[in-house]
Amino acid sequence: MSEVSVTKNAGGPAPAADRLVVLDNVNKHFGALHVLQDIDLTINRGEVVVVIGPSGSGKSTLCRTINRLETIDSGSITIDGKPLPQEGRELARLRADVGMVFQSFNLFAHKTVLENVMLGQTKVRRTDKAAAANKARALLDRVGVGTQADKYPAQLSGGQQQRVAIARALAMDPKVMLFDEPTSALDPEMINEVLDVMQQLARDGMTMIVVTHEMGFARSAANRVVFMADGRIVEEAEPNQFFNNPRSERARDFLSKILHH
Ligand SMILES: Nc1ncnc2c1ncn2[C@@H]1O[C@H](COP(=O)(O)OP(=O)(O)OP(=O)(O)O)[C@@H](O)[C@H]1O
Ligand SMILES: [Mg+2]
Asked: Which intervals of the chain form a coiled coil (predicted)?
């Protein structure tokens, strides 16, 4: 983990150039529900941030605002110094800069694994087909499913499909990767093969925001844990500090529930 630790921001705020994702006083409502409340969150380049919290606390909504799958009511979100674009090609490019991996794999069922990983490259990045295919094969090898390239998603296990989804996001050369409970739909024996790929990505220096209940991953890969409850960030700390010595009652209560079953 030393490669990750060196990117830790020991003293004070990072220089502006190192701030990759910045949420400043973000608020969002779903009708009467104030789902995100005064969210201030900065993710530095190369940092791995794990977001945890009870069901309904707003973790998925937070992720979805960062690539503008959800709009916000007030505040601002910038990626690499630029505010999120409203629509059109700029928005498509932003979505490519922000790789997203969901609980459900969302692969195109009628396209092969290889085509799934090529598609964004040819459509959004305008990469030519041969180059896109080469890159897709290299990425599929990297996540350990190179031999599955010509199959259709339904012919793969859940763990393999999720690794294809990761390869597909990586094919766009994203600046940051968002993971929203990427292993919670998987059978237990497939969880580690996906977490291993994510660990490797973290070690390679990818900037990552990861919503997960996998506390082992949080402990070993995260630079910082963000604990949310009721639409607020209640606590932020390094994993050791957070797990061994949570400051808030809410976090202590949450940890006692998830760590004791
Ligand atoms: N599109 C929507 N319309 C209305 N309410 C929504 C919508 N999406 C989410 N919510 C509500 O917002 C709150 C936060 O939801 P969100 O999915 O962000 O929570 P979460 O922390 O990801 O929960 P979980 O751990 O169960 O995934 C919940 O009360 C949810 O019911
Ligand atoms: Mg969620």
From this structure: none
Which protein residue's CA is at the shortest distance from atom 7 of ligand 1?
30
Q: Is 127 in the pocket of ligand 1 (CB under 6 A)?
A: no
- By CB atoms closer than 10 A (0-12, 13-18, 19+), residue 175 is middle
Q: Residue whose CA is closest, atom 8 of ligand 1?
A: 61
All structural domains of the chain with their residue ranges: 2-108+175-259
Identify the residue whose C-alpha is closest to ligand 1 atom 24.
55
Q: Best mutation site among 26, 28, 29, 33 for ligand 1, i.e. most ligand atoms within 8 A of its Cβ? A: 33
pLDDT value at position 65? 95
Cα of 105 vs centre of ligand 2, distance in Å, is 14
- The model carries a pTM of 0.92
- pLDDT by residue (tens digit) across 123-157? 888 899 999 999 999 999 999 999 999 999 999 99
Helix (H) or strand (E) holding 92: helix 88-97
Q: Are 77 and 49 in contact (CB under 8 A)?
A: no
